[in-house]
Design goal:
This protein is mostly beta strands. It is built from one helix and seven strands, in the order βββββββα. It has one domain. Strand 1 and strand 2 form a beta hairpin. Bound molecules: zinc ion (ZN).
Length: 107
């Protein structure tokens, strides 16, 4: 399962990361969440809702090629905003495969 891993030592800081495919190296979207919180609490901002990540045997896979996804370019954001303002959808729902091209109206 994906996690912020090393980012936890950053404490309560807002991070952004790109969820990227190991196989086709396409980004699935961006994640925004706090370093000291579970990744499931992060918000997921899909780049293309037509290719949402999906769960395969407990691993999150690329919507295009089913390759393994990983967190790329983890970096702290300069400001702390409430996660609700980050938009997107709760990552836990994506990980649980509950986000079937639903109209998330991600702004
Ligand atoms: Zn892929």
């Amino acid at each position: 399962m994906l996690s912020w891993t090393n980012a936890r030592r950053m404490g309560h800081r807002l991070l952004s990361a790109t969820l990227r495919c190991r196989q086709c190296s396409r980004p699935a979207g961006d994640l925004v969440g706090f370093a000291d919180r579970d990744l499931g609490e992060a918000r997921f901002l899909p780049l293309d809702t037509g290719f949402m990540p999906h769960d395969l045997s407990g691993e999150l896979r690329c919507g295009r090629c089913s390759g393994q996804l990983y967190l790329d370019d983890i970096e702290p954001l300069g400001r702390n905003v409430p996660l609700e303002e980050a938009g997107g959808i709760p990552f836990a729902r994506v990980a649980a495969g509950e986000c079937e091209i639903a109209d998330t109206s991600a702004a």
